[in-house]
Protein 1
Amino acid sequence: MNGYHILNKCLCIAATFYLIISVCSCESSYRSGNADIDNILNNLVTGEKTEAALADIRELDLSGLNIDSLPPLLAHCTGLVSIDLSHNAFTAIDLTKYEKLARIDISHNKLEHLSEDFMTADSLKNIRILNLTGNRIASIPPVLTKMTGLQELYLGYNKLSAVGRELNTLKQLRIANFGSNEIKRFDMTNRNIQILNIEHNQLRDIPEQILTNRLLSLYAGYNSFRKIPDSIVRCTALTSLRLEGNDIWYFPPEMQLMVGLKLLNLSACNISFIPAAICVMPNLETLYLSDNKLTTIPSALSGLTSLKALYLDNNAYTSFQYNMKYIVPSLRKLSLKGNRITDLPSYIWEDTNLTRLDLTDNPLDPAVIQSPKVTFGQSLLPEFDGTDDVVKL
């Protein structure tokens, strides 16, 4: 690997700064030591203006280098606005020299906590995005309460057991990810959150205090929820609701008032019928009902007048006699993978508005069904992947 490629990995330089590195043509290698990075920089950035040149750098990428501390030479990068230290071996971090930082990515390291003095008090207020995903943090770091300008916080894949009210002081916080922890108690009442991820935890109830008219997207799959609270109707701005992997038995009738909802995921919720409350959502476009015990399609589904994609994979259908053209005329994509369908009327794929029908892993003879709309034994095209969500957390 030559010096150019290693520098390209280490430094993302602002458009106003150009670094000429043609002076170096020798082969260089990296062996997980800070001295190696310093040697590379010393070889490539030389002369009287070295410090000034480093001070002009706005974005720094040191991800995936297996380092556990910052190279000393980088202390001159005082103009940094964004730093990526992800996928390294940091157990502690000192960013006190970088007072202009607005975006910090320390994900996938070995942090057990975040020190109160890892940055200066004034610079803490400048942070807008903080990514601590994939560390070993067991409690909310108190220093987070001082990041009054924080807008996005990512704490997924840690060891959190509780989220208290300490983050209520973050009035600018809009995106919060606490997914894939061990959370049993969630008391945060920050009513400014727009996108919240609490999936893959151990919560028994959906925290009602976070169900506000500002919430746009809620990821709450794979907890231990048994019911959807009536207060869900307060989420008048909600467009995406993911509750998959919960054993839900109660769906409040008020759900039909959630007219802004566009995506609903109720896969693996142990349901044997499609709840009436979700059959009259006029703006719902994508509905996931896979991995349940469904055997029928209710005529009430016609209330989903905007539905475009319906996922019924791995249910208990043995036959499918429903002409979706007349039940849900707007439907374009239907997935029935992994059922036990042995017979399918031709009108299902001929007299239809569907553009994609997935019958993979059903005991059907593909030779009988000849249609470019039908998929057997392969994934559907990318437009059928169901990722039309507000944001990917």
Protein 2
Amino acid sequence: MKTIRILSTTAILLSLSCCTAFGAYRLQDETIDSMAIAPNDQDSSYSSLPALNQEKEVTTKGDTTYISFGKKKIRIIEKNGTTDVKITDKEEGDDEHLDWATDEECEDLFSDKKDTKPWQEFKGHWSGVEFGLCNYMTRSNSLQLPDEYDFMNLRTGRSWNINLNFAQQSVGFGSDRIGLVSGMGLEISNYHFTSDIPIAMIDGKIAPDSVNARDNRLKNRFQTTYLTVPLILEWQFTGGEYDDRSYLGVGVIGGVNLFANTLMKYVENGDKKKEKISGKGYFLPPVRYAFTARVGFKALKMYANYYPMSLFRKDKGPELYPLAAGLVLNF
């Protein structure tokens, strides 16, 4: 940094000296051409030219160098790996100690640049949109449901998990490549059933609503919406720039139940009909948490979430443990 400042100062002084010398030469040439004077009088014309060796004063204060050069004043600021040079004319009242510039004026030049440490520059991968498939497992970690849960069987290809992660905060661990990631988001899970029978709260628990079963069913869906808050440990490796790095993240995601609904679409007498029941009920846990793993390589990014808490509260419905996996589009 000191070497750069010395080179910058030297270059500026040389430039000003050359400009002064060129001005002196032009003035001398014009004077000789326009005046018919004796050779012994030419010495007096030379003596009236501006001096090439004008008095210079250099003062250094922190990252700033002040230079007084003839009728010019120069300020050089080295900060955040950049060099800023400002040259102005001296004004009446400027003294020999170069107090014409204040520290506040110097800071104004870089008011939009902040001193940052590597750990402050760490940026994780949370904010964005995630799209995947959702399902659930039994207590024995099987995707095959027992007969008593037959009404909960899913059409996996249409059971979507959509996460809208709208806020992010990252904190590095002394580096811009490893740290903690948190934020907020919305998780929407759509469970599409293979059965024609919707689910409902019957006799204090979740059960099939056979009374409202519909023939010619087009859609039988159960949807949950949670506000999510993650805490993820992320390590970024390979690649130089943020967008070129691979990364691996593991952590937990907490969720707060916002609402849920069921939707049944069917055909009756040739007409398409829809029945939707919304609310915060359905015996969902008010809060829950999931284990999450995330991996990415450049544009290819994936996530997987597993909830060790049952979809429904204890003894209020089938004991099923949700999971979801899919692709990530960060912003």
Protein 3
Amino acid sequence: MKKRAAYFAVYTLIFMALACHIFYVFHENGRSFIWDRDGLYQTYTTMVYFSEYWKEFFRNLWIKHEFILPMVDLRVGLGSDVMTTLNHYGFGDPLLIFSIPVSEAHMEQCYAFLAVLRYYLAGAAFSAYCFYMKRRELPTLVGALCYAFCGFALYAGVRHPYFLNSMWYFPLMLCGVEQVFRRRKGVLLVFVTAVAACSNFYFLYLLTFLTFLYAMVRFACLERERNGKNFFYIIKNGCGCYFLGIGLGAVFLLPGILAFLGNARGGIKERGVESLLHYGLDFYNQMLAGVFAPEFTASYWTILSLAPMAAFGIVLVFTAGRRRDRWLRAMFAVLTLLLLIPAGGSS
């Protein structure tokens, strides 16, 4: 326990130093984290609305002793359902709870704080997964920082902060899967699935696909556990925990999905690809140029720009030759293949 506390103290200090160095450019140029497009008109506005919505709820509950939870608001979409309209922009985001006691005058600072907090939680969740998998502190620290400040996070996190939620949900979902593999109660898998279901149905879909893929690769590479009895046990308990989480989050999930299916924009496909099996040549040139370099490669949101330190990790995975890590090699190969084809990379 003391070693873990010391680790997270060191992680916090290094994270704060890197965050100050990376994001100081905003302060230096008099800019905020609020993007002048979707950030201002969607994400920030939703956070302000969320804060006022719950302030009014608790005010009515405390002063008037009335339980009033408005479902429709004429200020939203000229009279639309609050939950289904704003859920995609963060209305179900658990971190927005921190905005409730904040006044509107300080909401901009709260917005920036929560954006940076998501970076921190991404690295912390990555660390938790590594420790659950019995990895050493130093490699875990390096990996956590590379993960938290990867190119995708730096590009998307200041434009759409809620995009980063999946980066800290995912490692925790994998910890939940590992609990099921080790025949422990999958409470974590239930909890994180429920939180993800409340947050955003699209990212839940991506998390579900990647988590299922992870479970299949892990099981295929575990020789001692690879038998029919264990397979059905994992399927039964894993699916049970997952669907229990879905049920807990259904109050946000189902209305959001139904609203999306009835939305005219749901049928629009922007920047479509000619084939689900390959991109154009320009895409692959851009992607290769931006694997480790800070190259703008936002085609289909394929933004890598990994820290050069990550290159050593990739080399070690394939050259160390440890039998217990062969699932990492298989997972890397599968995910790379998915990234190279529109059927996986542009989902």
Protein 4
Amino acid sequence: MKSKTKSHSGYTGSKLDLTGFHLMFLLFSLALTSIIGLSFIKIFKTYFWEKTHCTILSCKIDHAYKTESSYGIDISYTYTFNGQSYTSDIYQHNYQGSSDYTEIKQIVDQIINNTQVNCYVNPECPQEAYLTRESLWRDGSAILVCQIFTAIGVGGIVFTWRKKNPKKNESNKPKPKSALVTKWYMKPLKISSQHQDFSLNNKRPDSIILKSDSSAIKNLLGGIFATLFWNGIVSVFLSLVLDSFEKGEPNWVLTIFIIPFVLVGLYLILVTFYHFLKLFNARPILTLTPGVTPLGTTTELSWTFRGWMKFIRHLTITLSAREEATYDQGSSSKTDKHTFYEMELFSTNITSEMTAGKVKCAIPQDCMHSFQAKHNKIIWSINVKGNIKLWPNISSKFPFTVLPTDPSDDQ
């Protein structure tokens, strides 16, 4: 028998880990909001510029605007402001052109055929004028998307460091490990006769097929959702970076800042692909006979595999029991895990022996039976591990119920 301890934080992690995680979202949002906000403010100011009549000097389609595959508007117009004449060749602030020739031709034709053309002049700098004003929608919607990260960042940090009700914290204080593991480990419980019908009834199943505690399909779907959500948001800002390079004016600040978020997105893609590959692994099917297993008894474990087995290099089957204690530590949750029993049942690197087999599985009497409460669990499981070269390994846990010692055994 092997006994080992594993103690680690639950999914919420420690305060510092959570703060750093949510701070990443907050900094990402603030940086992008600042960059996009500067452009938004500049566009917004043009809505307060003075509308002035202008005369079109020339207007035609630019067949190589910004890039060879895009079309733009080559325009020149003159206007008078405060008694002085000025000339401008800017159609719109930060105009990107279009790959749609028909769209550009319609704009050019509309300008040429319009006898009353107005432009918008910056009263503080009359030399600056635009023929049309850019819509606030694109940058405005991008800023709103940024606030998703802001909400996650600020909300997460506040939630992490919030103060809980002292009375509630007092009631949730964890029991020491010795009270949970050592006491039960040394003194296995026996159920009273009035509970026999509930846990140790006479109609015991002859055998039971165990169910894995994880699903390859669920893991894949979870990975797909996380990948689409993360990369969908990051792609909005990645497009801004690509546009800046396409225009020949790279935005290096945004480029450098977005690199770690792109790397996270690539990591999520790899994780999702990893779970996709695991769908093709052989799936173990475990059966316990008899189906009810009290402490101090021996049951027979049989197994078969559904799928290809020839790629498995080594197969190991172990019996283990672990304790899980979940409690609040400050304002975060923590789960301590302690494996207090582990026994190797089967191990081989011969393919013919892996496909199917049987082995005796003895449950020790001086251990704790299966147990589940609000903050504590005792979980018994059969663990199957298969090593596959250059492919995701097989790693499945099959929980099963170990009952207290049957009182009839003492009679």
